[in-house]
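A.,

Following up on our hallway conversation. Structure tokens first:
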């Protein structure tokens, strides 16, 4: 994830031209009018049960106020710093920051920025420090353009684009020296086999794996949002999404990113479309999109099932006359199982977590069926913000994480790290054990299950379920509190174990490098997030779009998994012996035992 950098010119010039003010927390509103300054809660920990405000007033409408946090450390999920684009709490909310992070840059466009620190009675941490600057154009055009102080707009130099001239028009020269693409009319045009805004995302068998790619930067076509829903449709080569929330507005748009030309497009349907919503669920169905539920701008919980026909560009309301009707929901899941759509969990309008499961076959009567559990009380499966994937080989839905009712206080929720399997033929629940087994040859790789989380995503790719992001409460080894996880977690579906993926990826990287392949060292996860969407493309690439980590994201990221995770058809054609040499190429038994695909869940010879 990228943030807008404060350039050297932006920092130094205001320091030379204007007096700089240092404003500590005084337990009241402090109004700041200097063109640059420092905001901090003060020395030591901030007080408990405390509120403090800073209003940065640029003096006129049209001016921009930018703030750069250089230190941030509050109690995760309880103590917050709120940032408003305006002078009051009714102004648009830019961010609600909590936990620990290193740097963050935000800009208000109204000529005012309101910063509020709010803490509870539990405990306090070291707080925050930030610098601010007032400019006539966003970020003074990032030293890559000329500012019109009258129009408050930037005219970017050649090769730069964006409102603040902060984005390269053709990053990496579109990979032209490597034959990946060319720069035409201030944008990259990718050659066959490559995609993304800089043509760095290799597709099909050309992908070497274990690498992140920023396919589209935040705000470069996708308006930032969270709690939206989406799916990848291979026939259109596009990632589709609908709706979402901006902290201030419920979105109503259907938008698609086309990998063929690296462009975002807003799609206007030929007929009436669903109302805007957030917290809904969507999945691909026979080359089209199916969507259920969500919360509207008026706060209504929808029980509508919509189908979008991509070929006809039409929305159709389905199952409206079904005798069985699921409740209005948000934070639920909708999963395709053979020809059936399975709806599970979610939050109801009355505030209760749903434990119900329904299914429907759209080509056979548009009638919902209520799924009856054979071996478990429904109350055991009340959950919201979970993930659900279908594992075809075991005929099971795998339900991971989410918010469940608190064990002691029924009115409150708590995050869980439970992994459940629901067998769709037997209607039978089973709790899968994710605890380390010291007697297993894989005990070294079983110590890496993800912690409790909600509003994450999960996808099946190869023989793994991959979990990313989520709203968490993590105390890391450096004493920081993390509210949004940055790590990818891999659950091996054959061995039923969470693996130490980074160790295995590093080992495989050295293996392929020793065989003459380029060594991969691009393990640079983006900032953590939740309420994003994810999808699988080309059987080896995970896509992530949007989401929230105290502020909204409008980017599109791709993670290409290593070949040992997904030996897709294209890779096998290029590397016919890959599945054969994977075990024998391990130089030692210890590295072989890190790879479930090699040892097949039990001790085997690695000779």
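Then the amino acids I'd put at each of the 607 positions:
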């Amino acid at each position: 994830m990228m943030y807008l950098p404060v350039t050297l010119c932006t920092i130094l010039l205001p320091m030379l031209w204007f007096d700089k003010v240092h404003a500590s927390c005084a337990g009241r509103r402090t109004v700041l009018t200097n063109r640059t300054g420092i905001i901090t809660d003060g020395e030591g920990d901030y007080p408990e049960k405390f509120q403090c405000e800073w209003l940065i007033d640029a003096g006129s409408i049209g001016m921009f106020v930018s703030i750069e946090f250089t230190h941030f450390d509050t109690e995760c999920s309880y103590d917050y710093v709120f940032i408003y684009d305006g002078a009051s709490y009714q102004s648009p909310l830019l961010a609600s920051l909590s936990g620990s992070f290193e740097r963050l840059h935000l800009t208000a466009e109204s000529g005012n920025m309101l910063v509020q620190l709010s803490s509870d009675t539990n405990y306090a941490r070291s707080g925050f420090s930030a610098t601010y600057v007032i400019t006539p154009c966003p970020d003074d055009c990032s030293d890559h353009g000329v500012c019109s102080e009258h129009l408050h707009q930037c005219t970017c130099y050649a090769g730069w684009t964006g409102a603040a001239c902060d984005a390269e028009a053709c990053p990496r020269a579109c990979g032209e020296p490597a034959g990946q693409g060319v720069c035409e009319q201030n944008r990259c045009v990718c050659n066959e086999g490559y995609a993304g805004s800089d043509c760095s995302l290799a597709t099909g068998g050309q992908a070497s794996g274990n690498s992140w790619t920023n396919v589209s930067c935040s705000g470069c076509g996708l308006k930032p949002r969270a709690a939206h829903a989406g799916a990848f449709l291979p026939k259109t080569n596009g990632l589709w999404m609908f709706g979402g929330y901006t902290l201030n507005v419920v979105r109503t748009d259907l938008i698609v990113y086309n990998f063929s030309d690296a462009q975002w497009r807003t799609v206007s349907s030929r007929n009436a479309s669903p109302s805007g919503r957030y917290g809904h669920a969507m999945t691909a169905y026979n080359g089209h999109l199916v969507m259920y539920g969500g919360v509207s701008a008026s706060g209504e919980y929808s029980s509508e099932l919509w189908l979008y026909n991509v070929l006809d560009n039409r929305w159709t309301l389905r199952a409206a006359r079904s005798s069985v009707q699921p409740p209005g929901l948000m934070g639920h899941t909708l999963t395709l199982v053979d020809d059936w759509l399975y709806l599970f969990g979610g939050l109801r309008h009355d505030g209760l977590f749903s434990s119900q499961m329904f299914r429907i076959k759209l080509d056979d009567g548009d009638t919902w069926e209520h799924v009856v559990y054979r071996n478990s009380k429904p109350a055991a499966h009340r959950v919201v913000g979970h993930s659900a994937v279908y594992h075809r080989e075991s005929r099971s839905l795998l339900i991971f994480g989410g918010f469940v009712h608190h064990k002691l206080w029924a009115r409150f929720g708590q995050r869980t790290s439970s992994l459940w399997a629901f067998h769709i033929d037997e209607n039978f629940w089973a709790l899968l054990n994710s605890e380390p087994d010291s007697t297993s040859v894989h005990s070294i790789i079983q110590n890496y299950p993800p912690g409790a989380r909600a509003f994450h995503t999960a996808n099946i790719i190869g023989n793994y379920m991959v979990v990313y992001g989520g709203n968490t409460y993590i105390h890391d080894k450096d004493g920081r509190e993390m509210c949004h996880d940055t790590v990818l977690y891999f659950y091996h579906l054959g061995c039923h174990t969470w693996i130490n993926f980074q160790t295995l990826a590093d080992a495989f990287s050295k293996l392929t490098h020793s065989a003459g392949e380029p060594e991969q060292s691009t393990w640079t996860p983006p900032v953590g997030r939740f309420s994003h969407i994810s999808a699988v493309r080309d059987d080896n690439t995970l896509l992530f779009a949007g989401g929230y980590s105290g502020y909204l994201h409008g980017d599109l990221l791709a993670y290409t998994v290593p070949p040992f995770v997904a030996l897709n058809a294209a890779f096998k054609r290029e590397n016919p012996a890959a599945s054969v040499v994977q075990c024998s190429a391990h130089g030692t038994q210890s590295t072989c035992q890190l790879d479930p695909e090699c040892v097949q869940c039990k001790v085997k010879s690695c000779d």
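The chain has a mean pLDDT of 84. Curious whether your intuition agrees with the design.

B.
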